[in-house]
Every structure is written in C-alpha cells, then in structure tokens.
Amino acid sequence: MAKQHLGELLVENCFLDEKQLKQVLAIQKKDGHKLGSILIQEKLISEDDLLGFLAQQLDLPVLEPKEENISRKLAHKLPEKLARDHKMVLLSEHQDGYRLLIADPLDHAALEVARAKLEDAELSLVLAKVSIIDAVLERVYK
Questions:
Q1: How far apart are CA 27 and CA 34, in angstroms?
Q2: Is 135:108 a contact under the CB 8 Å cutoff?
Q3: CA-derived radius of gyration, the chain
Q4: Is there a contact between 78 and 112 (Cβ–Cβ < 8 Å)?
C-alpha cells in the first residue's frame, strides 16, 4: 500500500480542492483529530463516500454489518487501548497473518504498532464505518 495521505488522495481525485484541504488541515492542526473525521464533521464528504473512496483507491473490501462473528479471544491479541484509539479489531487469523477491521487504512503508525504486537504478521485490511467498529469493540472488550 502506497504511503499517501488521505488529503492528497482526495485532492487528486477531485473530492476536495487545495483551499478546502488547507482549511481542514488547519482545523486538524488545532484540534488534533483525524482528517477523515474533520471532513465528515465539516460536511465535505459523507462517511459512506469516504469509505467507498478508500475501498476503491486502496482495493480493500468493506465489511457489511453482521457479516462476521468476531472472536473475543482473537480480538484481545491487540491491546484494548490501541484498538479503541485507532478503531481497529482483528477479524480472523490465517496462515500468513490476520484480517484486520479498520476505519483508517492510511494510519500507518497504528498499523505498524499493530504489526509489532502481532509479531510482524501480515495484515489483510478490511474497511468499516467507525460506528460499526465501535459496536464491535463494545462487544469484544466488554
């Protein structure tokens, strides 16, 4: 996966212009929130559109609600704080690594921490809305 920032991708694909990106980046610098959250809050893009865009650009699947039965034991291989802070949860294990449900596939720092916690296993990413991941996190970390 290329290490390109979300804002750059959205400008390149005409979802935002440079002026809008600069405004949103200024908000991000002040507030410290993730760019995608700010874009949605500022109504520059919907969560569904953002998810669809990322899925298409990064060639990643999107999880539909109730598609998966997630093992609490497997999910607990990632620390709860990491999972909640970065909106990620392990879905399944396979021979080479894990399928990881994540809201922000461009959060490279969080992905590196997750890989380290999983002994550098390969991660196959699956996208989902923040609300879906939050619901899953509530079930597996209660």
A1: 10
A2: no
A3: 15
A4: no
